Amino acid sequence: ATPWSPVVWKINTSALQILALATVAVILVIVVLRFPIKRIAAPIAKTAKRLVEFADGDISSPAPTTDLGGEIQDMTEALDSMIKTISGCIGDIRNVLTSMADGDLTARPSVEYKGEFSEISISLENIGDSLNQVMSEVGRSATEVRDGASQLAEGSSQLSQNAVTQAAAVDEITSTVLDIAKKTEANNENVKRALE
Q: Residues 82, 70: contact at Cβ < 8 Å?
């Protein structure tokens, strides 16, 4: 084996020292950054979990909160605002439709529907207006049917009264005709006797 020259020895020693320092630096970076990364990743993971729950129909649970500031806090606050807006709209829609189902066709949205949600509010108002119009027409038709039935009943009563009056007149005429027939027969008998 050939001995190393002092220059090669120094280069190898320096390379080993640099490699050792780099390894220690990487380990320190991993250890030091581990806690801030976890601190940043935890709210993001909680927010992602809350979004999945929201997609599965949980519209009332609040969004996770954080005190980190910056974009992560902006994200959680925006999620909370979205949940409150959508939850408020859905709750209002439920209240309006329940009132209409219970017969209150004057029920209208009571919260402000922002952005494209305003189309839902307009639709609910249109549904209420249409149902009111239909029910008004049904009410008018029912009144007309009632009035027609009343007129029909009045006409039937008058017809019945006239039938009774005519029956009495026919009975009187029949009585008079019978009386005339008896008198005619009596006169016939008298004429026969007188001719004999």
A: no
